[in-house]
Specification:
This is Leucine-rich repeat-containing protein 14B. The chain has about 525 residues and is an alpha/beta fold. It is built from 21 helices and 13 strands.
Length: about 525
């Protein structure tokens, strides 16, 4: 599909294609053409041109998401192109905007917004090199510290120190870039570029370091907080976090696995859970909550009932929910507002079929994403599932990997899925009949790939043919055996793996020490 370009955009492309001429002519270009030239330069990956446009930016704001998003002149959305050449040119151009010797009175820029950049799996830029969220965090922090060095060495105009530009960014901090980011945040008040953290993701960090850096981010401005994987945050630490720091604008909260474990609850723990629920209730903007891989049996109501704003996104996958939990969700005011729901890892047909379908019915008018992985959905449940999904006319995404469904049942389900008008993404399981007879579900990692690949490819082709014959080429169907693509994990997987090995080694050493002590 080719997106039409206006004559203005075609002219802008022609202008920036001759980079040497265009760069020399920038001072004669009307200010209102800079956004047009920026998008054309980004599309053509003209790094030097992008740098010079940003260095001489004449407008009050520089919002990357809006600049690259659909415009009248070119409707294509380029905000998902995290091209390393283009983004590095943006950030170095921003640095040189500050250092540029033009009069400070000509510099109008007040706000730079980098939060609209979308990290996706498939990149269309020619260089094929991406700059993810972690790398953007790293480079911006480095540039801010470089600017301070320039200022201290008096290598720029005296008026440079009067420049103040707020740079809105989604920070991603791990052990590897922690010191650099902390240094940049500590020096923020002295730097012309002010890092303003809108969203914060931490991974592979000790609790001490997490608590230290989260206070430096100015939590009163945070809209999204993700504490994931290798941050060993447990319930008592979460209570301390909420008691010591206020998050008045927080809209989205992701907690690491095993934050909660009701199996070993004491009376003190029950009170702690109540306090956490009350603190979340004070977050009046909170509409997205992810608490996967915690054990929350019978405690969902205690956690969620204090919330004053209905949740739009809820991830309670692998949380060992019981019937009381599902009944609360189905009857709560959240049900009518849920746009994204993940109930993976629960035996829905066995434990609470009617309650689940009641929840689905209440959320059907707004539900856009539904994930039911490893939920023991079998062939005999498909007709009921179709009945439950039929009212979900706004469903964009349906993921149900890991369920014991035959190829015949999948064909039946796909025929129905064609009828959902805005469906765009389906993640389906390897059919049960591709695995050896007697395979048990959920399938462990060791056996996950031991299926008849040729037979799977043949069935996958048949399923795609069903979509094709229904004129639904717009639907992407896939089987990601090891989970959906996660840009943040992909970018830092080497560090994540090293951290896991280190943790495993430490555990083994402790175990060995304990054994030796017993022998003594």
């Amino acid at each position: 599909r080719t997106t039409m370009k206006s004559l203005r955009f075609l002219s802008a492309e022609a202008f920036v294609s001759n980079a040497e001429f265009a760069r020399k002519s920038l001072n004669t270009v009307a200010h209102n053409l800079f956004p047009l030239l920026f998008k054309a330069s980004y599309l053509l990956e003209q790094g030097e041109m992008i740098h010079d446009l940003v260095e001489n930016w004449p407008l009050v704001d520089f919002n990357v998401g809006k600049l690259l998003g659909p415009t009248v002149d070119y409707h294509e959305d380029l905000s998902h192109r995290t091209c390393s050449v283009c983004l590095e040119s943006c950030l170095t151009g921003l640095r040189d905007y500050v250092l540029n010797h033009s009069s400070p009175y000509m510099k109008r820029l007040k706000v730079v917004d980098l939060t609209g950049i979308k990290d996706v799996e498939v990149q269309f830029c020619e260089c094929k090199k991406t700059m993810g969220r972690w790398a953007r965090t790293q480079l911006l922090s480095k540039i801010c510290l470089e600017l301070l060095v320039y200022l201290q060495q008096a290598q720029c105009n005296p008026g440079t120190s009067e420049i103040s530009v707020d740079v809105l960014i989604d920070l991603f901090v791990t052990e590897r870039n922690y010191e650099l980011v902390v240094h940049a945040l500590l020096k923020k008040c002295y730097c012309p570029l002010k890092i303003c953290c809108v969203a914060f993701r931490s991974d592979s960090l000790t609790l001490q370091k997490f608590f230290y850096i989260i206070k430096l981010t100015n939590p009163s401005l945070l809209r999204k907080l993700e504490i994931v994987h290798n941050v060993r945050l447990e319930m008592e630490h979460l209570e301390i976090l909420f008691n010591s720091i206020h998050f008045p604008l927080l809209m989205s909260l992701t907690l690491p696995a095993r934050t909660f474990n009701v199996q070993r609850f004491t009376a003190t723990d029950e009170q702690m859970l109540t306090n956490i629920g009350e603190k979340m209730g004070e977050m009046t903007q909170l509409t997205e909550l992810c608490m996967s891989f915690s054990i929350l049996t019978g405690r969902i109501q205690k956690l969620l009932s204090p919330l004053k704003t209905p949740l739009k996104m809820l991830d309670v996958s692998n949380c060992s929910l019981n019937h009381a939990d599902m009944a609360y969700l189905a009857n709560s005011f959240h049900a009518n507002y849920l746009e994204s729901l993940d109930l993976s890892g629960h035996d829905i047909p066995e434990l609470y079929p009617s309650t689940f379908f009641k929840l689905l019915s209440h959320s059907s008018a707004v539900l856009r994403s539904l994930t039911l992985e490893d939920c023991n959905i079998q062939d005999t449940h498909v007709n009921m599932l179709i009945l439950g999904l039929s009212p979900c006319q706004k469903l964009h995404e349906f993921k149900f990997v890991g369920n014991p469904l035959s190829s015949q049942a999948l064909k039946h389900l796909f025929t129905f899925l064609c009828e959902l008008p805005v469906l765009k993404n389906v993640e389906f399981p390897v059919p049960r009949d591709c695995y050896p007879i007697g395979i048990t579900y959920p399938i462990d990692d060791a056996n996950l790939c031991r299926y008849d690949h040729q037979k799977y490819e043949s069935i996958a082709e048949e399923l795609n043919l069903i979509l094709l014959q229904a004129n639904r080429e717009d639907v992407k169907a896939s089987t990601p055996l090891f989970g959906s693509y996660d840009a943040a994990v992909q970018e830092t997987n080497n560090e994540l793996g090293a951290y896991l090995i280190k943790s495993f080694k430490e555990t083994l050493e402790k175990f060995t020490t304990s054994l030796n002590e017993l022998k003594l």
